[in-house]
Amino acid sequence: MQAPRLIEFGSIGNEEIGFLTVAEFGGDLPFKLKRAYWIYNTPELVERGGHAHKEDEIVVICISGEAKIIIKNVENQEFIFNLNKPNQGLYIPKMHWRELSLSNHATLFCLSSSYYDEQDYIRNYKTFQNHTIPK
Ligand code: TYD
Fold this sequence. Notes:
By secondary structure, the protein is mainly β. It has one helix at 125-130; strands spanning 5-8, 12-14, 18-20, 35-39, 46-53, 58-64, 67-72, 78-83, 88-92, 97-102, 107-112, 121-122. Strands 1-9-6-11-4 form a five-stranded antiparallel β-sheet, with no helix packed on it. Thymidine-5'-diphosphate (TYD) binds next to strand 4 and strand 5. Thymidine-5'-diphosphate binds at residues 35, 37, 39, 48-49, 51, 116.
C-alpha cells in the first residue's frame, strides 16, 4: 500500500521576479494527470473532505493560506500534514480517508489521476474501514 507523503516541488525564479513551480509526470508528479480542480474562498476553519477514493490518487497543493490535512488508511494509521507552501504538495494515494481544515481564504490546487466519478467516492467512514483491499 502506498503511503501519503509530502512532495517538495522545485521553485524556479527569485525574489525579484517571483517563482514558478512545475508538476510533471515522470518528474515529481507520481501519476499521469487527468483532472485539476481548486478549492478557494474558504471561510475560517472550514472542514471539508470526509471521504476516500477507491482508485483516484491526488496531489494537493496549498497555494495560499493554510491547510491541516488528516489522512487515515484502512489499517487505522493516522497521518497529519500542515500545508502552507505553494511549492509543496501532499500525495494522497487511493483508499486513504481525508479530512481538511482550511484557513480563511485558503486556496487548494488539486491534481488528480482520474476523471470525476462519484462512484469512486467512499463517503461513509464505516464503509471505508470495512473495505478490503485486493492483494
Ligand atoms: P468533494 O470532492 O466532496 O469536495 P471536498 O472534499 O473538498 O468537500 O466535492 C464537492 C462537490 O463537488 C461534490 O458535490 C462533487 C463535486 N465535484 C465535481 O462535480 N467534480 C469534481 O471534479 C470534484 C472534485 C467535485
